[in-house]
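Work Package 3 (structural annotation) set out to generate three-dimensional models for the target panel prioritized at the project kickoff. During this period the team completed the workflow that converts sequence records into discrete structure tokens, so that structures can be stored uniformly alongside our sequence database. As a representative example, we reproduce one entry of 157 residues exactly as it appears in the project archive.
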Amino acid sequence: MVSRMFRIETGDDKDRRDLLRRRLLDTNTAASPVLRALRGTPGERERPLHLWALDEAGELAGGLAGHTWTTWLHVTYLWVDARTRGTGLGSRLLAEAERVAREERGCHAARLETWDFQAPDFYRKQGYEVVCVIPGYPPGITEYTLTKRWEAGPSGT
């Protein structure tokens, strides 16, 4: 084994981050026939999916921010103002995001992360299943990853 010296640096560097992302993408594409088949197709790119709920005054009452990629919807943020909670707005936002993902973008499943004090029970009521639990992330909090599948995808997913 050859011993080499490396200098390790810290710090934000957008150019290096972008280079790292490109190189990882190239490595993953070379190693995976599935990812290789995605190259150059519309499914290769993440597409933002954002929904906004405005109250009578035009103020933000809730919203959902996420994206679709391949055949998945990824919900990054879902928030409803405290004054509006319990009205079904969160369910409406999630259902509309799922509809757009399924009907307009050909998605077969959705995924999201939530903490124990946020909304794991809400998502379970919407048909999501817990697939991962990470206690202590961050310390004193448990993170949940949940998924929901609408129909079998091309590989049985």
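The longest strand covers residues 60-69.
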